[in-house]
C-alpha cells in the first residue's frame, strides 16, 4: 500500500442493528459500512442512532487486474438473485 | 515520561535514554529515564538512535558530564562513574517458547560455572564467558529423579514433591466404531447397505417443513470428481455419528461414518449468503483447506445441503439456526439408519479414547472461548446425538457463562457449531470432534487434563467481563497449575480472550493463549499476563484468506502450546514478542521443539497448495 499510513479519524451513525451485524452510515455521506458484530466494540447496549468512531485510511487498489474468482462469484450471485426474483414474481 | 525505580529494575538491560533535559553534574536515577516501551516506535521513525547506548543498570548512579536534551541516549562519553555490570551471559536463543525436554536430555554439564541455582524445579546453568551456550531448562518437574543428574556442586534442592508416584486413573472412555462409506445414493429409504449409504428421496420436503423459516432445501452429493463445482458459502462441516443404545455423548460407544461428511450451505430468499462477510462461496476445491481438523479430507463425499431461508433472516439468530436444524432432519435419519446396522463386519476400525487423570502431574484446564454474539455467532452445547440439534442449548441462551465438559464430550460431538464469520479461522463442528489441543493434552503423560471449559463471547463489554470473571473463579476453584485459553477468529472476542487470560494469570496460574492473530487479527487489547501466546495463523500473508479452516488450531499449534505451557509452569522465561508479526518465530520454535523432543513435527500446508488463479496469487501473496 502506498498511502497506508495516512490514518483518518472517521465517524458514523448506526442505522441498522441485526443479531449478527450492524449497518453504519458514514457521516458526511461518505458511504455505508456493514460490519459483523464481532468487529464492533460495544460498551453500551446497541441502539439505532448511536454515533461511532474509528480510524481508517483511504482505500487503494492493489493492482489493475480483476480477480476472476470474485468476478465469477459476483456473476453467480447476480444470476441467482434474478432467478429468485423471477421465481417470486411467478408465485 | 520518566519511569519509577521498579520499572527501571524490570528494564535493567534495556537502553538508557533521558526522558527530559538534564544538566551536567546530575546523578542519573530512574526518574531521569524514559520508558523503554516506547523506543521501538521512535527508532522506527528515526527519532531515536540507540547505537552505543548504555543499559539502564549501567547508568543508574552515574554522573552526567554534559547537559543533554530529552530523548538523548546515554552513552559512555557523557557519563562518569558507569556501573560495572557482570559480564552479560551469552544470550539465550530468542525463543518464544522453550519446550520441556524429557529428563534424560540433560546435556553434558562439565563446564558449569560458579552458580547453578535450582529453584522451583528449574535448573539454570550459566556457562561463564564462554561463547558457547547458556542452558536453561525445566528439570522434568515431576520426576524428582531427574535431579540426580545435577552436578555435585549444585546445592541439593528439596526434591520437588517426590511423593510416591500416583497411578493414572481412567475415569471414562468412549469407543468410536467406524463404518466405511464409499458411495452415497438416493433411494426409497435411508439405509446403509455394505458401504453404500442411501438417502431417502423426498426427505428434503420434510426438512423444509420442519422449519418455518426454511423455504427450500436441496441435497447435493459431491464426490471427489465434483470438487470443482460452485457452492454457496460453507456454514458447517459435520461428522455423521450416533450413540449406541442408551449411551450418552461423552461415554459408551459411538458409531461414525467414514468417508462422508455433512456440509451445510445456504442463502436467504434474495440469494444473500447466510453468514455474510468473508464468505467461502465459490469452487469447493479452491475454498477448502483439506485436512484441517474442522474441514473435510480430500477424497471424502459431501452430503451438501443448500438451504434457502426467509429473506432478511440471514443475519438474525433464527435464520442460521433454522438452516442447521433443517439439515439435521436429514442427518438424524442417517443416524437412525446407522443405529440399526446390525452387521458388525461393517466396522472397519474401532478407536478408544480414555479420559485419564494423572494425579501428581501438573493439572491443566483448557478454556475454549466460543462465539456468542448472536446469529451465526452461536453454538449448540450438548445435544443428545453427536453434533446433533435436539437436546442442545444455544450458548447465547445460556448467557455465555462457562460450561465445563469432559474432554471426551468434546471429542464426542458436544458442540454443534453454528460457526461465525471468517471462513479461515472458524472452528466448525468437526473441529471439536477432532480437537487437536484436547487430543494432545489428553495423551500427554506429563500433564493432568482436568476438563474443557467452554465460555461464550458475548457482544457487550460489560457482559464479556461478567463471563470472564466467572472463568477466573472457576479456574481458581479447580486449583490448576496451568490453563490454555483458545479463541476462534478475531474481533471483539479478543477483548474477553485477553480478560480470561488476565483473570487466570492474576491468580498466579500459568496461562497460554491461542488465537489467529498474525497481521489481520492483531490483538486489540493486552495485559501483563499475556506473555505466552501461540498464533494459529497458517496463511502466507497473515490474513483471513477466505479459505475454509486455514487458520484454525492444528496439531502443530497444540504441540507448541503444550510445550509453552510446560515451560511456563516450570517458570521459564519466554522471549518478548517481536514488534510486528514474524512467521519465523513459529518456525524457530517448531525447530526447537522437534530438536528437544527428537521428533519431526510436520507442518500443515496452507492456501498456497490449492489451485488458485494467477491473478489472485498476485494480489494476495
From TrEMBL, chain A:
Superkingdom of origin: Bacteria
Record-linked NCBIfam families: CBO2463_dom
Protein known as: Uncharacterized protein
Native source organism of the sequence: Bariatricus massiliensis
From TrEMBL, chain B:
Matching Pfam families: Gly_reductase (PF09338)
Record-listed E.C. numbers: 1.21.4.1
InterPro entries linked to this entry: D_pro_red_PrdA, Gly_reductase_pB_sua/b
Keyword field: Oxidoreductase
An MF annotation (GO) of this entry: D-proline reductase activity
Top-rank EC class of the record's enzyme: oxidoreductase
Name by which UniProt lists this protein: D-proline reductase (Dithiol) proprotein PrdA
Gene source species: Bariatricus massiliensis
